[in-house]
């Protein structure tokens, strides 16, 4: 029997009332739900780092049980449940978090020589060494061993184990650059780069590229990582240390979900598939000046926003009775391990919903590579929504999110790595003073 939320269920036509969500231009919607009115939560850089890393682990663990499952084939997930794919208890995070922690710890603990007094920095060889430790020894694993690893990451680590470091990097870049090697393994771990290096956009972009090249050196993976890092950096700048501006300029240049969409849409992709999925098509009408008109224009022309409008507007769409949004079909919104599918699905969840919890629940219930879509979403969304408890209530902290945190396995490990990255980011901040 199909779960009650499946596409086979009879779903009543959605009527948007009061503060209900999920609507787009063309359906009844309150002004405050528009993208141009949704702004990120200000907080310290330390808070953003801590909660983005924590969120990555929480939503990874939430999505693990839905990994490999067809959409609508499993009960709707809103809490930590056992991961029957690997016979694991609730709250266990997977390779998405482990590799994120490895990258974060490499950035904050790398030493050029064992006796070097200076700690921290970017080094692909050190990153690969930590990924190898995770694979072989269970370093930074939720259960003390590696129980799942992506194909491309596995191949890169095999090459790294057979050759000298310099030759291994060259072979990885040549042997794994094919289109068929376009998994999401480098995107799922990239968030620490934007969190640490956001003060230097060019450096962050370079490090995002090099981080991807260590295991996923093809163009679509590289550019997905560069764009994601740029988005994280933009949010960090505007929420932690916004530049001084006049009141008029502040209002015009204020970061909203609409301006973040414009950043993503205007990113200089060279990969045609990323351009087709994330930018405006050639030949559209000129961009309107007014924000309301501009937002409606994006919903008419941008492929992602058109998809949101088509799948979240009134009509007999697929949705759970307790969830205020529709869940698109697999044909409408794939959530596979292909990096393009992961990027689009994570952005769909972010731009469709208005709180961290809502987007997380949507992401994990997509199934297929649900844990990765969820963790990629979570890093970005936590950077946008998060603040300390009592300040980020409602948009980040909810009863459910507190439950997720409480039930997360080995949370102390996640928090320790996050603190290391906080310390490194503070040292970088001093260099810019």
Automatic annotation (TrEMBL):
Reactions listed under catalytic activity: alpha-NAD(+) + H2O = ADP-D-ribose + nicotinamide + H(+)
One GO molecular-function entry: metal ion binding
Known cofactor(s): Mg(2+)
Textual note on the cofactor: Binds 2 magnesium ions per subunit.
Pfam families reported in the protein's UniProt record: ADP_ribosyl_GH
Family that this chain belongs to: Belongs to the ADP-ribosylglycohydrolase family.
Keywords, ordered alphabetically: Hydrolase, Magnesium, Metal-binding
EC number(s) from the headed UniProt entry: 3.2.1.143
Residues annotated as binding Mg(2+): 94-96, 369, 371-372
Enzyme class, first EC level, given as a word: hydrolase
Descriptive protein name: ADP-ribosylhydrolase ARH3
Taxonomy, superkingdom: Eukaryota
